[in-house]
Specification:
The protein has 4 helices and 5 strands; from the N terminus they run βαβαβαββα. It has 106 residues and is of the alpha/beta class. A 5-stranded mixed beta sheet has the order 1-3-2-4-5. Helix 2 crosses helix 4.
Length: 106
Amino acid sequence: MSGMDVSDDEFDVLLGASDIPVVVDFWAEWCGPCKQMAPHIEAVAAELDGKVKIVKLNVDDFPLVGAKYGVRGLPTMLLFKQGKVAATHNGAMNRQALANWISQSI
């Protein structure tokens, strides 16, 4: 399930059903840094499969979750443990920085 897209309606169900940490990538189609991060997110999702679930949420298509968690800039990454925000990162990262941030946060 890593790297999958998720909607507002699916978000709470996903968090409640996950027994591993969930990283949410808040992004938008018009966001250049978001597009630059996409291959890094896919690579890290494959690398950490089973340790963390990585999902993408397009804030233009599904704005409620971003608003609920105060996402004001893109890209923003939130790491959830047991349904609660455990770590936040704003701005683009390369593959290694993303992997390090997730590994240190889980």
